[in-house]
Design goal:
By secondary structure, the chain is α+β, with helices and mostly antiparallel strands. 28% of the residues lie in helices and 31% in strands. It has three helices and five strands; from the N terminus they run E-H-E-E-E-H-E-H. Strands 1, 2, 3, 4 and 5 form a five-stranded antiparallel beta sheet that branches. A hairpin with a 2-residue loop joins strand 3 and strand 4 (64-78).
Length: 121
């Protein structure tokens, strides 16, 4: 893993940071969400994971309209760790097709982004 203090890993004060993501998934219980979060942090696949209060999801699955209560988990990670985080979620998650969505971090505090780099290296 790259040195978290290397210039290529730190955000350019004049432009957007590079190499950092938020990754979201959902699951059907708070306990499962906590397990997914803790496992990713323990493995250094993410620097932080936030478990949100239940949300109501409405979707179509196997041809039927479904409504369910889910807990969101939002991970903060380095882009270089995404493939391993996705693999962990696919192996650990009990959904047949879990939601795994990554969004680039376009702006962020230099200290916070450096912390993400350090915690995921």
């Amino acid at each position: 893993m790259a040195d978290p203090t290397a210039l290529s890993e730190l955000p350019d004060p004049a432009g957007p940071p590079t190499g950092f993501l938020t990754v979201m998934t959902t699951t059907d219980s708070e306990e499962k969400a906590q397990r997914l979060a803790r496992g990713a942090i323990e493995a250094r696949l993410a620097a932080c994971a936030q478990v949100s209060a239940p949300v109501t999801s409405v979707y179509r699955w196997d041809g039927a309209l479904e409504t369910s209560q889910e807990w969101q988990v939002l991970f903060k990670t380095a882009q270089a760790r995404y493939a391993e985080l996705e693999s962990y979620l696919l192996q650990t998650h009990d959904y047949e097709t879990p939601e795994i969505i990554a969004t680039p971090i376009t702006h962020g505090g230099a200290g916070y982004l450096s912390w993400i780099a350090e915690e995921t290296s």
